[in-house]
Structure formats: C-alpha cells, structure tokens
Amino acid sequence: MKKMNVGLIGAGFMGKAHCVAMSNMPKLFPDAPYLPVFKTVCDIVPEIAEDFADRFDFQNWCTDWREIINDPEIDIVCVCTPNCDHAEPSIAALNAGKHVICEKPMSATEEQAEAMAAAAAEAAKKGVYSMCGYQYRRVPAIDEAKKIIESGAIGELTNVRAQYLQSWSADPRSPLSWRFVKETAGAGTLGDIFTHALDIAQYLAGNVTDIVSIVKTYIKERPVQEGGVDLLGTVKLGDDAKKQAVDVDDEVSVLCKYESGAVGSIEATRMAWGRNNYITIEVHGTKGSITWNYERLNELEVCYGMDDEDGARGFKKIYTGPANPHGDVTWNIPGMNIGYGELKAIEAYEFAKAITEGYEPSTCFEVGYQLDRVCSAILKSNDENAWVEVK
Question: N or C: which terminus of the chain carries fewer CB neighbours within 10 A?
C-alpha cells in the first residue's frame, strides 16, 4: 500500500484524536488510499512532544513547527494547535506543497480564516488539498438524513433547529485555559462548539443568509491554571487560586434564515448542567420530519407525516449500520454502534480520498471560512441588537 508521511503540530487532545483516526483509517476502510506514516510531532513543550512521539510511534519530535514545513519528506500536516496558531503553519504548509487538515474553527479571526481559504484555493489548483475538522457531519445517521432530505421524502424544508449543549465549564472553579481567552480562541462557545451545530445545520439545510443573536458571558473570571495544557474542566482549582477575566462567550442563541427559505434556531452553551456532549438537530419539512441526538448517534428518527394515517403517525427509528453511508467503518450488525473515534477515522478517510483522487473535501477551507463569516455576523448582530446579513 502507498505510504504518506504525516507531521503533527500540537500534541494535545485533538492531536491524539487525529493520530488515532489516521492509524485506524486503513484498518477500517478496505479501500483506504494510503498508509499514514507518523514522521514528526511538534509541541512547544519538549516533554509533551517527546512523550507523544514515544506513545504514537513518531520517528521524530520537535518544538518548532517550521521543521515539519521544511521537511521535504512530509506529505500531510495536521494542525491541532489553539485557534490563534492555525493560520501561519497551515498557510506555510500549503505553500510548501503539503496537504493540510486543520482543526476547527479555522482561526481566531475572520481575517486569518480568509487568508487560509485564499491560500487553500491557490494550492488546490496545484493538486494540494485542505480540510477543516468538522467530524460530526460525518456521522452515518447525519449522512442518511441528508439522503432522505435530498430524495424529497420529507418535502420542502420549513424549519431547522440545532443545539450543542455541554456542562464542562459550568463550574466557576474550572480553570481558565486558552479556550476562555479571546486572543487565543477568538471566541468562546461560539467558535468551540456552536460551529459544529451550525455546520450540521448548513450541511442538511443549506447556508444561513441572515441571523439575529444573543451572546452571553455568565462567569466573568476564572482561576488561572498552571501550564498551557487544556484540561477541559476535568480539574477544579481552589478559592485561593489567582483569577483572570474571561473575555469570551459562554452561550450563544441564534434565529436564522436559510437560502432555501427555511427558518430555524441554533443554540450552544458550555453551561448546561446535566448535558455532556448533547448535539441535536431537528429538521421539519412539508411532508415529514427528522430528528437526531449525538448522545445516541447511531440512531436516526424519521416521521413520514404524509404517509401515516391519523392515529398512527409518529417517528420511525433507524439503527445505522453497514447499509448506511460510510458503512465500511461500522460493524457488521446495526446496533453494534460506532463512536467519536470512528467519526475521526471517517474524516481521515474522506481527506485521504480527496488527496489521492484530486478534489476538495466537503469541509475544505472555503467551507470553514464561510462558517467563520456566520460567526462574525452573530457577534455583529449581538452588538447591534439587530438582524444581520451574512456576507
């Protein structure tokens, strides 16, 4: 099998997710286009980089991402750093002729995202491709929902509701990591999790054209953690810890209009006690409805309203498996179920296919930039207390 050398920038949680996905991709997909070879991992903390290299069998490690860009043997670069550090290595890698998969959101600013999209467009002309990491749209149930919508089985879309609710930062003792600092994150819940719900909604219903929003920050300061590792609320610091102001959002609520003429709402918060990774989408059409919940990600519920008789109308549950989209990655029997790791493997597979067959993946940098433009419109709407058109 063909081999492709991989360089990883950022050895944290998402770096682990990318490496597990790339390693599993050729194991799960019989027609995988290549076998990834882990060449070099980079992290600004030497101990983290060295430990990661040992655990994931990288040939080399470094603390300067430019070593990866300048290595002519590296074919693919994974960018898994904080948001503010996405643009420079991604653009440099594309300019050096390396394929790039970058975690979402695209960057900490719309201007940086625009520059990344422009560099990606130029690189694509030379057969060099990029992807933004929006793995939740690759859930087989979501792809099945898209097939049903495109078939016309639920009619013309009228309303789309999406949510992403978490609770890991609801405790004010949860430390202030880079995710709570505008300079590094660009935004809080908006960029961190709202963009996932927005991406699923737009994947199923088309692009959002106009929005009105409310953006709120509830916890105004948090204890400062030692070190730069993002602990995602898994530890709590005491009352005597030094505190720092939070300058990003905790919650976002949006009403929106779609190109298709549908309307809807999207909301996200990291402050919802009792919710862990609660992503939901509900799509209504003139003939029926679809609903899905990530915490039961292998199930899709469909109501073919026009086909059911009065008194017998309701949702039909579909357990996804080998017969559904990306069936290669699922197990032999519906109900055996897949999870987060398999979703990242599906993402790695689509990226691999795009690279070897010569096309832009479904979440190319232009798609990531469009999502960032919606987020900019959301912040503008909140500031102006008015409807805003997405540019």
Answer: N
Burial status of residue 238 (CB atoms within 10 A of its CB: 0-12, 13-18, 19 or more): exposed
Phi, then psi, of 292 in degrees rounded to 5: -155, 150
Burial 70-87 (b: 16+ CB within 10 A, else e): ebeebbbbbbbbbbbbbb
Task: Assess contact for 48 and 7: CB atoms under 8 A.
Answer: no
SS3 for 258? strand
Q: Which residues lie closer than 8 Å to 150 by C-beta, 6 or more apart?
A: none
Rounded CA-CA distance 386/126 in Å is 42
CB of 371 closer than 8 Å to CB of 199 = yes
**Cis, bond preceding 89 (omega within 30 deg of 0):** no
Dig out the tokens for 62 from the structure: 């470094």
Round to whole Å and give the CA distance between 361 and 351: 6
Q: What is the pTM of this model?
A: 0.95
Per-residue pLDDT of the chain (391 residues; tens, 9 = 90+): 899 999 999 999 999 999 999 999 999 999 999 999 999 999 999 999 999 999 999 999 999 999 999 999 999 999 999 999 999 999 999 999 999 999 999 999 999 999 999 999 999 999 999 999 999 999 999 999 999 999 999 999 999 999 999 999 999 998 888 899 999 999 999 999 999 999 999 999 999 999 999 999 999 999 987 765 666 666 777 777 889 999 999 999 999 999 999 999 999 999 999 999 999 999 999 999 999 999 999 999 999 988 778 887 899 999 999 999 998 788 889 999 999 999 999 999 999 999 999 999 999 999 999 999 999 999 999 999 999 999 8
Going from the N-terminus, what domains does the chain have, and what CATH number goes with each? 3-135 (3.40.50.720), 140-296+298-336 (3.30.360.10)
